[in-house]
Amino acid sequence: MVSDRKLKILFLATEVEDLAKTGGLADVAKALPQALTRLGHDVRIVCPFYPQVQERLKEDNHLHSELSLQLGNLQYLYNIHQLHLGDVPVYSVDYPPYFSRQGLYDNGYHAYQDNGERFAFFSMAALQITQSLDFAPDIIHCNDWHTAMAPFFLRNELADNQFFYRTRTLLTLHNAAYQGVFDLDSIPFHQRFISALSSDHMEQGNKINFLKCGLLTADKINAVSPSYAAELLTPLGSHHILSLFQHRHRDFSGILNGCNYDDWNPATDSLLPKAYDQHNLAGKAECKAHLQQYVGLPEQADTPLFGMVSRLTGQKGFHLLLPALQRFLEQNVQVVIIGSGEQELADNLRALEAQYPDKLIFREGYTSKIAHWVQAGADYFLMPSLFEPCGLTQMYSLAYGTPPIVRGVGGLKDTVKPVKSNGSIDDATGFVFSHPEPDALLDLLMQALTLFNDAPEAFKQLQQNGMAYRFCWEETAKNYVSLYHEMLLPAA
Ligand SMILES: Nc1ncnc2c1ncn2[C@@H]1O[C@H](COP(=O)(O)OP(=O)(O)O[C@H]2O[C@H](CO)[C@@H](O)[C@H](O)[C@H]2O)[C@@H](O)[C@H]1O
Known about the structure:
GS/SS, glycosyltransferase, 2 domains, about 500 residues, binds adenosine-5'-diphosphate-glucose, Rossmann fold, transferase, alpha/beta, nine-stranded mixed beta sheet
């Protein structure tokens, strides 16, 4: 039985929904701390102070204090701002030379050269802040490579610090393809920790791999879905660090993300032109017409509309989607794609749009409002990912009665119940394909098209099945609490 002891949890994240966001990590960094707080735990988030956070500060009361951190020869003087996300306190690390930039990790084209020193500093600062607040955490919950140096620092240079005597660390993998690999020399204070490094933490000679440092030193590791955790333990799915995952397999598990139904519910979504729910889908037709009008597509209720909201990156399966769409757009269909990221993919999408201007609309960029409009206005949602640690947008599309068309990998496999090959719906919630081939995707798109055109009742059942499904953060938070408890030292 899980103890009901209330825990102190320090949650480190480099993006948080409502403050600064590039993708799904931000959704989790807001929803999970809030769900843990609702369960009675004392959670504090630490994140960098980007200009976007400064905007938010104007609306929020804040404490303001100054700290000084000596790292090697460098003395960092930085500020901490306190804000609130609902009931959760957020401490934001204000060091303008590192964080006063519009892009979080890159300038829109290239990753910043100093990302290694930026996020190594951030991890160290978080460990200092928690001491200055006299908040001795039971758990430090780190997320992805950006904060993976915190367990490493704790295990090495802070090993004798009594303040952290009872503290345990969890590293959550939202995307292990990004590992944070840097020339050691690019981190000006690397002499401070170089003696703790071995070839296991390094790559290509003199490069440090932050994710490896975290994987080797965190007390427990988890991936954001059970299937992604299993894939990381295979040669194909391990992002080239199989031996490390195998080495830690006893401390390694998968916990499925949840869906924030306060933000993603078509019955209460104030961004939509018309509300609707599982029992009355009429408003969805209005949302479709509104989306068509907004993006400039012909307002045709009978033409199926396929939507996609995504970061533009190889992970999301664009090299399957583009050739499949090239042929699929010959059909009577409409496609709306919203996203930002790699310029080459944006160029390819623009080129396809130029070929089918009255059928395909690509909008480069992202706003929360347009994401909601696509989720509500589309008939199907596209997510043909190469790999997908969990995926949140397919959960949103299920909630919005927009059946997802996904590849059966990672969290997509764990969240979408496939329409059978004979076309029967039963308890299915979407279409799922396996082979990473454009033809396999095209086959599925054609099946989805046929269902929409020829079997409206079955299509409606598919929509309603998905809308009835729930991925509650409450459940996810309980799973994290069980894992936290496994990690704690027995009470003194
Ligand atoms: N161009 C863009 N700019 C800003 N926001 C955008 C965007 N495109 C989409 N979004 C928004 O970001 C979120 C995307 O989350 P996902 O989980 O689907 O993918 P992502 O790969 O970013 O997340 C990673 O982390 C999450 C969280 O663990 C995992 O679910 C996922 O599998 C993993 O790849 C959604 O809220 C979406 O609306």
